[in-house]
Design brief:
With 868 residues, the chain is of the alpha/beta class. 34% of the residues lie in helices and 22% in strands. α8 runs antiparallel to α9. The longest helix has 18 residues.
């Protein structure tokens, strides 16, 4: 047994004796009815600590009066809980680490943190993460909680984790201490009520006195599970206020005060987004969202974008109220994510992710722990109730993180979304759902997501993962489940291939079936791009090209196989007898699609009748215009389309986010008249991005014919080499790089181009695809896909070069004769010097002003030339 006199002390010898001493590593939690009771205990503890020469640190973060007065012997660390859970806990852990072993700590009353974070659950998470850290450093720390203020989900983890948990009572002007838990110590009277009398703490042994005290004080009761925490109490108050509003008994300012409070708890903390929410939503809307929510915390960016878009459109037009497909989604709060990480030992990696030097360390191990993690029983029961509601209807679990889909941060394609066809026995459907949740949680620690956060300077911001669980929009067609059409729409069109197209009218990328082919770049197929002011104008020049570049494959849910699959459109439509196929496809009996059954009618997915004989284009255009106007910013929308008959249809807005388009109002003329002998590249036909005239400092060029002879493995090695070169680009924007290569950049199929990830090219200014990998492969204008969203977000210019067309040219002599500076940047990669060339503008003779690139997106023309 330790000699407690030589160790630590509460500063109250009688209490030390009653507790059999204070041990190194003890975390001591006091449950009180008032701050004065806690202060009476902290004062002697701190005085004794100062007298013994120990480091004393006071964490000040609450609104109650300070526990300690300023004293040079006490280090006060002031914290702002509103900065977010991750920031708050990181600062505390950094302080503890600097102080080292044997320090003493006093924390303000923790109960206020539940109010600041709007969640009891996060209070429990805070303690579970902090208490072991203090224990390992052999410190002693004081904490306080208000009695009957918290639910069991906060108290239980605190009680289980701490070493000492004591109730403090006041009865007839006397104070009593009631130790409920004292770890590793025992005496016959330790867990009895003790009267604090001078320097002594005397066990109360008379039953009449004990019962009088405990029946007169605010006892917590047996059923702590039924006790509402801060979150539940606040929303109960909101429900009561809404009832008063409905009865005409509540002033408008009181209603607004409650509305703003609940919005900060559940909707967003971003001032710009909250302004939109205040304009288009009311208290009853927020309460309705809460009724379909599992857990506590925020609903996240994707959920809020979808809900806001629906409310904006419903307020805009009664037609849209009728036209929008009803939704019955559920929302899994962001607090559950942190709780899951803490319970499954994956939290420790979060603090490393805040540091740009260590943000990838441990992420793979943390991902594995997440993928095998377990959920608390109470949460699994709620998941089961949600699945009972959906029955066997297909659902999709979508990421909806705090930073996702906000102004300037789309996170497009960074986090997972998982389809659950939701077929089979109840137990299997539950396990499939839990696996989907784990997959999305794990994607928060993927390298591409972390690199995106690092690139955007978001590593130090709180990033919690909420989830949106939606019924999949569509219908059953035999074993197939899919919507008639789906797509993405931009309220501003960055791809204007004809002078009659108005960029401010917007653009749409349309597919038959599930929208996965509209948002993910499909290397095996094409999609329909529609300019909303001129839907009949296509980039293709004749029907032969239309047929060649039409969508052939359809994504759908196979209900028999219980998974997402891809199949040929003609096979899918042959089994879908109730689909109004003529709205989406045109007949072409002369086409040879390579199918076994060549006698049946051959359909080509043109979408011509949909665009010309229904109001669909006008509806989408007006929706985008209304959303753009509400956001006062371009928007990017994902939608589905389902017909009830040949004219009556429903549109489901499944996502809406700000689209960071720059240079929308560029009107200055762009010089495109450089002499032929000074041109390096001339391109016409596919230009995405705003018009610009920029100096080029460096060109990275992948030689098409040599690259075409590489093995698939070697092509992946070239992609990694491009990533290395990308890291050498100045991040301050002082250097503009033109990247030129054969086939598609960012392809998942190395036979079709260069399989870089976006993080391999994210510092590049201009990306050029040379159409030379296959004769029949044209650049699919991947408008609306995650890849193109990232180009637009980074203000990169995309262009395609068609060497066989007369107004396109590539100056091969220039690339063959210029010095290759590859080895200056990657000295160990000598074997690639013939295939990858790095050309510096400063090496060009006779071009004193260097290299310039001029791009006119309206005319769809680009030239890169040596300046005279």
């Amino acid at each position: 047994m330790h000699s407690y006199e030589s160790m630590f002390t509460t500063g109250l010898p009688g209490l030390d004796s009653a507790l059999k001493g204070v041990l190194a590593g003890d975390n001591i939690v006091w449950q009180v009815d008032s701050i004065e009771e806690y202060q009476a205990l902290t004062a002697p503890f701190v005085q004794a600590g100062i007298a013994s020469g120990r480091t004393v640190i006071y964490f000040r973060f609450a609104s109650h009066p300070p526990l300690l007065q300023p004293d040079k012997a006490v280090t006060m660390v002031e914290l702002d809980p509103n900065a977010g859970f991750e920031t708050f806990i990181a600062l505390i852990h950094q302080t503890i680490e600097r102080a080292g072993r044997g320090a003493l700590y006093v924390f303000d009353c923790l109960s206020e943190l539940a109010a600041d974070w709007y969640s009891d659950q996060m209070l429990g998470n805070f303690f579970v993460l902090t208490c072991p850290y203090l224990f390992d450093l052999e410190t002693v720390a004081y904490f306080a909680l208000f009695r009957n203020y918290h639910s069991s989900r906060a108290l239980q983890p605190i009680f289980e984790t701490t070493q000492l948990f004591l109730d403090v009572y006041r009865y007839q002007d006397k104070r009593y201490i009631y130790p409920l838990k004292v770890h590793l110590r025992y005496s016959p009277t330790m867990n009895m009520l003790h009267e604090w009398k001078g320097d002594e703490f005397l066990p109360v042994t008379a039953s009449a006195i004990i019962s009088s005290i405990l029946t007169s004080v605010n006892w917590s009761g047996l059923d702590t599970n039924a006790r509402p925490g801060f979150w539940e109490r606040t929303f109960s108050e909101g429900e009561e206020m809404q009832a008063a509003v409905d009865a005409g008994r509540c002033p408008a300012e009181k209603e607004d005060e409650m509305f703003q409070r609940l919005c900060r708890m559940m909707m967003s903390r971003d001032p710009g987004i909250l302004k939109l929410v205040s304009r288009y939503m009311k208290l009853k809307d927020v309460l309705e969202i809460r009724r379909r929510m599992i857990g506590s915390g925020l609903v996240g960016g994707k959920t809020l974008g979808m809900l806001l878009a629906r409310r904006i459109l419903q307020n805009h037009s009664s037609r849209f109220t009728m036209l929008l497909e009803a939704h019955d989604s559920f929302y899994i709060g962001s607090d559950i994510f942190f709780t899951f990480l803490v319970r499954n030992g994956a939290w420790w990696v979060r603090e490393k992710q805040r540091n740009p030097q260590t943000f990838l360390e441990g992420s793979e191990l943390a991902r594995q722990r997440i993928l095998t993690g377990q959920f608390p029983d109470y949460l699994v029961k709620q998941f089961e109730q949600m699945l009972n509601y959906f029955g066997q209807a297909p659902i999709i679990v979508r990421s909806s993180s705090l930073l996702e889909d906000n102004f300037g941060n789309s996170f497009a394609g960074k986090y997972e979304s998982v389809f659950c066809p939701n077929q089979g026995p109840r137990e299997r459907r539950l396990e499939d759902f839990l696996s989907a949740v784990r997959t999305i949680y794990a994607s928060s620690m993927s390298e591409r997501a972390l690199r995106y956060r690092e690139q955007k300077g978001l590593l130090e911001q709180d990033e919690q993962m909420a989830l949106l669980v939606m019924r999949v929009s569509g219908s059953v067609h035999g074993r197939y489940f899919y919507p008639h059409a789906a797509g993405v729409g931009f309220s501003y069109n960055p791809y204007v291939w004809n002078e009659n197209i108005d960029p401010k009218a917007g653009v749409m990328r349309l597919v038959f079936g599930l929208g996965t082919r509209a948002v993910d770049r499909s290397d095996d197929d094409y999609t329909r791009v529609v300019a909303l002011n001129a839907p009949d104008r296509r980039p293709e020049v004749n029907f032969e090209e239309v047929r060649q570049y039409a969508q052939r494959r359809v994504d759908y849910l196979d209900l028999d196989a219980n998974r997402l699959v891809s199949g040929h459109f003609l096979d899918v439509i042959a089994a879908s007898h109730d689909v109004p196929v003529r709205l989406f496809a045109s007949t072409d009996n002369g086409a040879n699609w390579g199918l076994e059954n060549a006698t049946r009618p051959t359909w080509v997915l043109t979408f011509d009748k949909l665009l010309s004989t229904t109001a669909f284009v006008e509806d989408i255009r007006e929706m985008l215009r209304a959303l753009h106007q509400a956001y006062d910013y371009p928007v990017d929308v994902e939608f589905t389309l389902n017909f009830l008959d040949n004219q009556d249809y429903r549109i489901h807005i499944v996502q809406c986010r700000p689209l960071p388009v720059k240079g929308m109002d560029t009107t200055a003329p762009i010089p495109l008249d450089a002499p032929e002998d000074r041109r390096i590249v001339s391109a016409s036909g596919a230009v995405i991005g705003h018009s610009r005239h920029v100096r080029i400092d460096r060109i990275i060029y992948v030689t098409p014919d040599l690259y075409g002879n590489l093995t698939l493995q070697e092509r992946h090695e070239v992609a990694r080499l491009i990533g290395q070169l990308n890291q050498t680009v100045s991040r301050q924007g002082a250097e503009n790089i033109l990247l030129i290569g054969p086939g598609r950049w960012g392809t998942s199929c190395a036979s079709l181009g260069i399989p870089v990830s976006f993080s391999d090219i994210n510092h590049i200014a201009v990306v050029c695809e040379i159409v030379t990998m296959r004769e029949n492969l044209v650049p699919d204008v991947s408008l609306g896909t995650h890849f193109l969203n990232e180009l637009i977000e980074m203000d990169m210019l995309y262009l395609a070069l068609f060497p066989q067309k007369g107004d396109n040219s590539l100056n091969q002599d220039f690339f063959n004769n210029m010095p290759n500076r590859l080895m200056d940047y990657v000295p160990k990669e000598e074997r690639w010097t013939d295939i990858v060339k790095v050309i510096m503008a400063s090496d060009i003779d006779g071009a004193s002003d260097g290299i310039f690139l001029s791009a006119d997106s309206l005319k769809q023309k680009v030239i890169c030339y040596k300046a005279s």
